[in-house]
Amino acid sequence: MASQTISPHATASSRPRYWRMLGLFGLAVLVLCAAGVSWMLTIARSALPELDGVLPVKGLSAPVSVTRDTHGVPTIEATTLDDLFFAQGYVTAQDRLFQMDLMRRSAAGELSEIVGEPTLKHDRQQRILGIRAAAQKGVETATEEDRAQFGAYARGVNAFIETHREHLPIEFRILGYAPRPWTTQDSLMIAYQMVETLSTSPAASLTREKVLAKLGPELTADLYVNTSWRDHPPTVTTTSPQNSPIEPEPASAPRAITNSAPLPDLLKPWLEPFFRQEHVALGSNNWVVSGAHTVTGKPLLSNDMHLGHQMPNLWFEAHLHAGDFDVAGVTLPGYPYVIVGHNRRVAWGFTNVGPTIEDAFVETFNDQGQYQTPDGWKSPDKRREVIKVKGKPDMNFEVELTRHGPIVSQLSPGEVRKIALRWTLYDGIRNPFFHVDSAQNWQEFRRAFAGFDAPGQNVVYADVDGNIGYQATGKVPIRAGDGSLPVDGSNNQHEWTGYIPFDKLPNVLNPPSGIIGTANGRITPDGYSPSISVEWEAPWRTDRIYRVLGSGRKFAAADMLELQTDVYSELDKFVSERLVAAVDHSANASTQVHKAADILRAWTGQMDANSAAPTIVTRARTELKRMLLEPRLGTAPQVPIGDGAALSWASYHWMMETTWMENVLTQQPPRWLPSNYPNYDAFLTAALEHAIKDAPADLSSWKWGQENTVTIQNPVLGRIPIVRRWTGPGVQPQSGSGYTVKAAGRDYGPSERFTADLSNFDASTLNIVTGQSGNFLSPYYMDQWKAWYTGYTFHLPFSNSAVKDSATHRLMMEPQ
């Protein structure tokens, strides 16, 4: 029978029937959508945690009190440490179980089992790197104290899972699986993936090798600069304070932008490639000032760790109390203890050191599959991996293991040699945090951090007696070279001979300036040996922090938040001034370029979302880089063909690449001036012309906030259009940049903002990005977002009276 079609020339009698059918179809769709939303709301509501009353829990030896404040931050009070860490695991699982499971799967390389093929590349990477195997080694070498405390935490998580299998977070129901029991190995995997995230990539050495072969030593040395006149090593006690008051960021109303990100984008926080060519724009700020610089006469310590955004946010706030163990701050879901915060006497904060802790060894293999060693040919060990893929056959493969580590060449597209990865992670990592949380003075604090192997951190310190300090931490290899280039693995000439002794790592107590700050920049004074890192972060944030703190002001806690949200960019102000001067000296600049120069001329250096100048200058910096490097390294392919596949100007990524650019623009060396320009003024003017070629006719409408958005969304619920608007802030414009103290990019930013007031811990402040809960129906799911986004914060209650006064919920966990 012939099919019927609806024609625009349908008869009048057929039209009512058509519209009735269309109406019924629309109604059916609405009913189905309503039913789906109703189901989701019912499931999500059933997964909300119990926050009040008495809760019998199997596994406790005595009652545990859980008091939550107005933002859902728990104060957990127990009689014994075993019960305390058990309760920490249980309470964290109440709010973050799905996130915890996603994090351990990401670390282990098991996402494809629940997601399918989109995460297969990541899972394969994690299996090759052997994060699960390294964590198992960590379990085997753990101390009895660690085994007991990690075991208690895991039992707490499992007690929650066992009693809530019918009320799991909705993400488990949508993806169709249930979490397996928690183990100590799972906790270590989460910690080890943090090490992976904060490690500089060995891909930089492979790219540097190609650049050196192409450009020679002089230009390569220029590009891979690792010092700046703006550096502020914390152990160098002389400073040059300059009066540089903070210019407040103009307030602006958030403007929503449509978000319909695909699954790989929403899972990006868990999918960062290890052999990345471009460094991950992560970092952190921390500083501490002595009482000589504060209104109270006691130190202030601040920390905002810049990490990849996820939903819910990375950190979980908590206050842990059992006897004399009394500590508050941010915890890592899936891992016991407080990571950054304060106890009754001391406070501390972190930034990443970024030490060179991986080497790429080029192994020589023969036709029999053996590799060359100083003792002859040897067969590599092999580890068999099986990746389960949802809806697809399993992926089976073997990882070859040499004396230096796994063969990782497959993770660097275009690499044909056999590259083995030597990494401190494979030597085992100790856990210092119970002793850090317990430390009562500088000596105990340093003794605790002597057992902190990775990721290497810059730790600032303050105590109630008025002392301030700094300690670099981490296991840093001593080697014949510096780790900046791949080395021959067939001999022993490049082997690690040990680690820099802890006492030799940079540290200082009570410097005369009364100011210590770090922001991932160089921490070693001139002449320091052996090398800690071949790639420090550019010093723009560090320099800004020292200029503000050295301004002569007396600071209160609110001033620390003002600095944490500072959006002045010295880099971009410098570049804008060079561009303006070049245009002023150019006879051939277009009318539009003169307009751009006038916008930059009036600009104050604030990377404000409502300003056009930041867009112009950042586009110009990209053009300057391209025009300087393209003649020497080649044109980037239109379609990316893999990070390591071909050398081009876009291959060059270096944390201090903006220092190289500053050196070029300041010194204007003839060796870097492209041959088709008579002078640097003409070159800079041309770069500005290129930067604005696609700009709107009205340059003032080219707002930075539309270029510099922030994206945060739930990785599962964010894919469902009906509920997406309630499950994350989505895409929002923002002020700041990667070179402002408020480091801000699309996928990263301050993961928390913390200030400890050593005159009164109840005056300390802390906020995270979105909220404590992972359940979108919880009042604590997004209640901190506005503070993070617009720049205010909350007090963190600590004393018994403050905890009592701020209590919103009280839960008593009783032994069952």
**DSSP summary, beta strand count:** 28
Strand content: 15-25%
Poorly predicted runs: 1-12, 239-261, 640-644
The averaged pLDDT comes out at 91
Specify the biggest β-sheet: 11 strands, mixed
Tell me the overall shape: globular
User: Structural class of the helices, strands and pairings?
Assistant: alpha+beta
Termini separation comes to 70 Å
Rg computed from alpha carbons, rounded to a whole number of angstroms: 28 Å
User: Strands of the largest sheet, in order across it?
Assistant: 1-28-2-3-6-7-8-9-16-17-21
Number of helices: 24
Compact description:
By secondary structure, the protein is α+β, with helices and mostly antiparallel strands.
Label this structure with key terms:
single chain; 24 helices; 6-stranded antiparallel β-sheet; alpha+beta; 11-stranded mixed β-sheet; 816 residues; disordered N terminus
Explained architecture:
The chain has 816 residues and is an alpha+beta fold. 34% of the residues lie in helices and 17% in strands. The chain is built from 24 helices and 28 strands. The strands form seven sheets. An eleven-stranded mixed beta sheet has the order 1-28-2-3-6-7-8-9-16-17-21, with helices on both faces. The protein is globular. The N and C termini lie far apart (70 Å).
